[in-house]
Design a protein that fits this description.
This protein is an alpha/beta fold. It has 7 helices and 13 strands. The strands form 3 sheets. The protein has a 9-stranded mixed β-sheet, with helices on both faces. A two-stranded antiparallel ribbon has the order 6-7. Strands 12-13 form a two-stranded antiparallel ribbon. Helix 5 packs antiparallel against helix 7. The chain is globular. The chain starts with a strand and ends with a helix. About 35% of the residues are buried.
Length: about 280
């Protein structure tokens, strides 16, 4: 892995050069083994939280972890193109538009003892901007190379919050062109339900059951690229105990193994359809 500037990362993308890098400010990683027709993203995987924010933050390290999407990068780490956030969404949220990316409160709870100084906000928003500058270059390259692209937008959610049965996997699709892409939404939902999980976990899958695909990552790509489908894919946190702060590595591994075969197959079907 190399540490690269945004300019250096974009230069490598434009040249179709394989590389594995962390941004020079350590805000995100990007790995490109080959310039395949699909991209995996894990914008909420990050847990880093700047030292200068610690004393001003009213929420604990566990509170932050609880609302992040731990292990979502690991679930897709073996795929050809993976871009993932390193910083906690409590510092700035890559899945929100810039003007609302820095929280004033978090899930109804006050977040800061005193307002954040402008210079700290500006630095966080620069990281947000840099990430999307690279995302734009990456999707531009893949869409122009193949004529169409598909992005698997990986997330997780806290199922214990719900007072009803919820699916192990939810797809949020309200902000994509469902008339055009319904076939691939349905096939992805069906494919995900076939992943085998340990401990007799039944792999159920739903569409717009818990979340609806309202994230900025999906919206940004959808609004800027006419032939790229983004599938917001949320695993319930059956792979950890969200209240006891324990990750179950054997469940994460099972998800990773399931996606390792099923995700490329789905992406190939999408690609074959659009080049036909």
């Amino acid at each position: 892995m190399h540490k690269l500037t945004v300019k250096e990362i974009i230069t490598k993308i434009q040249a179709e050069e394989p590389f594995y890098a962390v941004a020079e400010d350590y805000s995100f990683t990007i790995k490109i083994d080959s310039y395949a027709h699909y991209i995996c993203g894990a914008v909420h995987d990050g847990h880093q939280f700047s030292r200068e924010l610690w004393e001003n933050c009213l929420r604990t390290e566990y509170d932050r972890w609880y609302e992040e999407d731990p292990a979502t990068r690991q679930m897709v780490q073996n795929h050809p193109i993976v871009i993932a956030g390193c910083d906690s969404r409590f510092e700035y949220d890559l899945n929100r538009a810039p003007q609302v990316a820095i929280y004033e409160d978090a899930w109804g709870k006050e977040l800061w003892k005193k307002p954040l100084p402008p210079e700290i906000k500006d630095r966080s928003l620069e990281k947000h901007h840099n990430f999307y500058t690279v995302v734009h270059a990456l999707v531009s390259k893949i869409e122009s190379k193949y004529g169409a692209a598909i992005v698997y937008d990986m997330h997780s959610y806290n199922w214990r919050r719900w007072d009803r049965e919820v699916p192990v996997i939810n797809l949020g699709t309200t902000n994509i062109d469902n008339a055009r892409y319904a076939k691939f939404v349905n096939s992805w939902s069906s494919t995900l339900s076939q992943i085998r999980l340990p401990h007799n976990i039944k792999t159920t899958s739903g569409i717009n059951d818990t979340f609806y695909g309202n994230g900025y990552f999906l919206k940004y790509i959808t609004q800027n690229f006419k032939n790229t489908l983004v599938l917001a894919t949320e695993f319930s946190k059956i792979y950890c105990h969200e209240l006891n702060y324990i990750v179950y590595p054997e469940v994460v591994w099972a998800i990773e193994q399931g996606l390792q075969t099923k995700l490329p197959q789905h992406a190939k079907t999408f690609y074959n359809h659009f080049i036909a």
